[in-house]
Amino acid sequence: MEQDQSQVLKKTRKRKLIEEGHGMLNLSLDDLNEDLLERILSWLPTSSFCRLRSVCKRWSSVAASATFQHACSQVPSRDPWFFMVNPHLNQSIVFDTAEKNWKNLNYPLLLQQNPNCNAIPVAAAGGLICFRTNSGDFIVCNPVTGTCQELPPVGPASLSQNLHAVAMVSSSNYSYKLILVSGELPCVCVKIYDSSKNQWEEGPICRKTKSILESDSTGDDTMYFLSKAGDVVATNMQRSPSKQYSSVVAVKDGEEIIYFLSPAGMVVACNLTKKCFSEYPRLLPMFFEYSIDVIECRGEMMVVVLSEFLESASLRVWRFSEVDQAWYQIAAMPPSMSHDFYGKKADINCVGCKDQILICVNSSELSSYVLYDLGANEWVELPKCFVNGEAKEFMSAFSFEPRIEACI
């Protein structure tokens, strides 16, 4: 009997609470002032932004307002998207790490208007991606909004130099820098475009002296040897066009350092603050067959290596210890996954962002994309991406934060 009375009391109390809060329950987004509405909508996933215009006229005006973009800029961070590279696609395909699916974006308008420029992405930072045309010019775009701008010409002198690396650095004040490293080792030159000044600046970089990282070789010498299969192999790497100038930027002790791979596969550290560069010790012997790529995760430089040993393939992540002056393994793909790469003569192109590393494994026999989470120590193979019913293959990827407020 007491239990029945308790249930009746709970129901009565519930009805009373509903009646008292009747006005609150009927509160809609239309009742919010403009500032509050914009702040709420700014926290939506980026994939929702493109649908704002189709909800109602008010939301459409919000999506295009400058105050809404400012509200979006106050969101500390967004889950990264990976911009996939396929030279035969006239559309942009990204992998959304928040929703774990593929998305199609509108191809940048400037690239649509110039289909013969053969622009390929070469660098990314913040919410922007930089493309390089076959004439050597650069185009920076926001892949979410599709807005883009062609940068001032680099100059004929720079075009004639051997380009080693292209990197981007974004700033909190809506500006960015594009960094070019060129020349013939050990004579290296750095050219930097500053969007806040809309101009290029150039300066030489010297080899660091009396450094334990310094190598006796320049890293440009090509050596040939016979593989175990009897093939002639060159130590000079042949990278895919999209990752030919692959590089990453990290800040160490307040100094900006750009890391890239020399043609011989050695990691080169170019200190932009001290105007000097040095080479890291070789990770594997020169006559060892492997594929290597340099990435940035958790604010530091790491490398990913795919190699074959004892009739199996191994894919591992390494970091360099400045204290011990040696490479240390920090992660390894489970053998059950990496063994599929054995004997395929596969090449890896990798990109890191925060705790995540996307690894594109390509050869004439396979095409695979694996996402590794450093924090959770999880390896996940991504599903195939289908466009018009056809599975697409990607050579590489670039990571960026999907932000509609990222300015060109």
Gap between N and C termini: 72 Å
Helix content: 10-25%
Strand content: 35-45%
What is the topology, as strand order, of the major beta sheet?
8-9-10-11-17-16-15-14
Q: Class by helix and strand content?
A: mainly beta
Q: Average pLDDT, to the nearest integer?
A: 80
Low-confidence stretches: 5-25, 210-219, 223-235
Give the overall silhouette: globular
Q: Note the total helix count.
A: 8
What does it look like?
The structure is a single chain. This protein is mainly beta. It contains eight helices and 28 strands. The protein has helices at 2-20, 22-25, 34-41, 57-63, 66-73, 109-113, 156-159, 335-338, and strands at 81-85, 92-96, 101-105, 120-125, 128-132, 138-141, 148-150, 163-170, 176-184, 187-194, 199-207, 224-226, 232-234, 247-252, 255-261, 267-271, 276-279, 290-297, 300-309, 312-321, 326-332, 347-353, 356-362, 367-373, 378-381, 385-387, 390-392, 396-400. The chain has an eight-stranded mixed beta sheet, with no helix packed on it. Strands 3-2-1-28 form a four-stranded antiparallel beta sheet, with no helix packed on it. The chain has a four-stranded antiparallel beta sheet with strand order 4-5-6-7, with no helix packed on it. The chain is globular, with a radius of gyration of 25 Å. The relative contact order is 0.13. Residues 5-25, 210-219 and 223-235 have low confidence and may be disordered.
